[in-house]
Write a structure and sequence with these properties.
Length: about 70
């Protein structure tokens, strides 16, 4: 997990760490434990649900790195 990676293509809520970039859970409405998985282009922290979403978020980043994005 790299909390300093930049994640693009997010909604405003996701970019502010208020929604999961993987499943779309709104943390203002749903109490789900979340972990920082990176940063948005604005520099704010992006959070994903603990467990599968966080794994997916980091795995997706690894695939992008492998493709040279
Ligand atoms: Zn999620």
């Amino acid at each position: 997990m790299n909390p300093h990676k930049v994640i693009t293509g997010l909604t405003a809520l996701q970019a502010d760490g208020l929604a999961c970039p993987v499943c779309g859970a709104n943390y203002l409405r749903v109490r789900v434990p979340s972990v920082p998985v990176g940063r948005s282009v604005t520099g704010s922290q992006v959070h994903a649900c603990v467990g599968r979403c966080a794994e997916v978020a980091t795995a997706e980043h690894r695939r992008r790195l492998a493709r040279g994005w």
